[in-house]
Design a protein that fits this description.
Length: 441
C-alpha cells in the first residue's frame, strides 16, 4: 500500500514513522521547509521525503494520504486529492487503526488542552498505562509505533476531525462551542459546530459522549443528530440526575457511587475550569477511577502553560500569560476570572472576531487596553468610545513596558489576545514565551 504523508512536523513525522514501522510504502512531502530536527529523524528512520515542493504525480498515485492539520482544506493539492477520490485522513485516524488501546478524545472551542492534560493527569495518577497526544504532547502515531499503552488521551481539533473515517473513541468529550476558525468553515458557525460533533459519529452504544448542557449550540445540534453513544451531561446551571453539576459550594458527579468535592479545593481557578473539572471527573468515573484518586488529581493538577498562567508578581502587580486565548470566547473566560483591575494586552491576526461578547466584561474589569499587533485598528474602533485608555503597540517589549507603566499595586496585567499570533510571532507559545521574557526582564 502506498502511503503519502503531507507535512513534515510532529504529526506528519509520527504518521510516516508508524507507516514505515508497519512495512508500508511511505513518502513524505512538505511544500514548506522541514525543521532540521525532523529531517534528521526522517533520515534516521530511512523515510523518503521532499521539502519545498509537492510532487503531484507521486502524491496522486497514493492509496492513502495522511494530512497534517495545519494544511488548509482549501489548498490546491487537497482539492486534487479529493477529485481523485483518494482516502484522505488525519494522523489520529491513521494511528487509531493500529491500536486496540481505549481512546479518550476531547474537543471544544476552549479548554481542550487543560481538560486533556487534566484527564491524562487523572489516569497517570491512578497508575494506568496512558499516552497523551493529538494536538498536545508527542505524536499519537509515533507513540502507537513505539509504546504499549492501554489508554490514549487525545486533544482533537475540528481540522483533525474533518479528516476521519472510522475514528471511534471509547469516551468523547465536547466541552463547548463558540465562533472560532470560521474562515475555514465558510463563515458558517453551524458548519464548524458539526465538524466538532464528528468526534462521536462512529461511536456505538458501548461508548460514551460527555457534553455541556449549558452550551446553546451543542443542545441545538443534539436535537437534530442521531448519537449512538451513551450521552452524559455536565452543567454549572442545573442539578442533574446523572452527570456532573454544581450544588452550593461543591461539584458533584453522579455516576455509580457519587463523587463530590469543594470547589475551593480545585487547583484550577474560574467557572470555565469548574466545567473542565466536571467533564474530566465524569471521564474518570466512567473509567472506574476511585473517588479519592480523582479528588487527589484535581487538587494537584498544575495549570497548562500559556493558559491563565501567573508569571510573576512585581511591585504588587500580577502578570498573567493567557497567550493560548486565540478567540473571543477564550478571553471571555480569562476576563471573567480576573478579581483585580486589569491592564489587558490584546491583538494579533483577527479571525473575524466579534467583540460584543466581552464588551460588558471589558467595561467592568479592564482599566486600560494595550493593543499588540501589526494592525490594531479594528480593536481600537470597537473600544474607543468604551475605554478612555487605549494604546497601540507593535512589539511585545513595547506592550509590556506600557502595561507596567499603567499598572499600580493591586492591579493585574493580562495577556489574553483574542487573536491568532502569526502577524508578529511563530505561534501562541512563542508569543507567551516572549511575554514571560519581557516581564521577567
Amino acid at each position: 500500500m502506498k502511503i503519502v504523508v503531507l507535512g513534515g512536523g510532529e504529526s506528519g513525522f509520527g504518521a510516516a514513522y508508524l507507516a514505515k514501522k508497519k512495512g508500508l510504502n511511505i513518502f513524505l512531502s512538505d511544500k514548506g521547509l522541514i525543521k532540521d530536527e525532523y529531517k534528521s529523524l526522517l533520515d534516521d528512520a530511512d523515510i523518503e521525503y521532499e521539502e519545498g515542493n509537492h510532487d503531484e504525480d507521486r502524491i496522486l498515485a497514493a492509496d492513502w494520504i495522511i494530512k497534517s492539520p495545519g494544511i488548509p482544506k482549501k489548498a490546491d493539492i487537497i482539492f486534487k486529492i479529493n477529485q481523485k477520490g483518494i482516502r484522505l485522513s488525519s494522523e489520529i485516524e491513521f494511528a487509531s487503526e493500529f491500536t486496540d488501546a481505549k481512546i479518550i478524545a476531547i474537543t471544544g472551542s476552549n479548554g481542550k488542552t487543560t481538560t486533556t492534560s487534566l484527564i491524562y493527569h487523572l489516569l497517570k495518577n491512578d497508575d494506568l498505562k496512558v499516552g497523551l497526544g493529538g494536538n498536545i504532547g508527542k505524536s499519537f502515531a509515533k507513540q502507537v509505533a513505539d509504546e504499549n499503552f492501554d489508554y490514549y488521551v487525545l486533544e482533537v481539533s475540528s481540522f483533525q476531525l474533518d479528516d476521519i473515517q472510522n475514528f471511534r473513541p471509547h469516551i468523547s468529550l465536547l466541552l463547548n462551542l463558540s465562533q472560532d476558525h470560521l474562515d475555514q468553515y465558510n463563515y458558517n458557525y453551524e458548519e464548524y459546530a458539526l465538524a466538532k460533533f464528528r468526534i462521536t459519529e462512529n461511536q456505538e452504544n458501548d461508548n460514551f459522549f460527555i457534553y455541556n448542557k449549558d452550551d446553546e449550540m451543542s443542545m441545538k445540534l443534539l436535537e437534530k443528530l442521531e448519537i449512538k453513544a451513551k450521552k452524559i451531561p455536565f452543567s454549572l446551571k442545573e442539578k442533574l440526575k446523572e452527570g456532573g453539576f454544581v450544588m452550593d459550594d461543591k461539584m458533584v458527579v453522579k455516576i455509580d457511587n457519587e463523587f463530590s468535592m469543594k470547589i475551593e479545593e480545585l487547583s484550577l481557578l474560574g467557572n470555565h475550569n469548574i466545567a473542565n473539572s466536571l467533564a474530566a471527573s465524569i471521564a474518570g468515573k466512567l473509567l472506574k477511577i476511585k473517588n479519592e484518586s480523582i479528588r487527589n488529581s484535581l487538587m494537584t493538577f498544575q495549570a497548562v502553560e500559556h493558559r491563565l498562567q501567573q508569571i510573576a508578581e512585581i511591585d504588587g502587580v500580577k502578570f498573567i500569560n493567557d497567550s493560548k486565548a486565540t478567540n473571543v470566547n477564550a478571553t471571555y473566560y480569562a476576563l471573567e476570572s480576573m478579581k483585580q483591575p486589569t491592564i489587558w494586552i490584546v491583538g494579533g491576526k483577527d479571525k473575524g472576531n466579534d467583540y460584543t461578547e466581552i464588551e460588558d466584561l471589558v467595561k467592568r474589569k479592564v482599566k486600560a487596553i494595550v493593543c499588540l499587533g501589526i494592525d490594531n485598528q479594528k480593536i481600537i474602533d470597537f473600544f474607543q468610545d468604551k475605554k478612555e485608555l487605549i494604546y497601540s503597540t507593535s512589539s511585545m517589549e513595547e506592550a509590556v513596558k506600557i502595561s507596567k507603566s499603567l499598572a499600580q499595586s493591586g492591579d493585574a496585567v493580562l495577556l489574553s489576545p483574542c487573536c491568532a499570533s502569526f502577524d508578529l510571532f511563530d505561534n501562541y507559545e512563542d508569543r507567551g514565551d516572549k511575554f514571560k521574557k519581557e516581564v521577567l526582564k
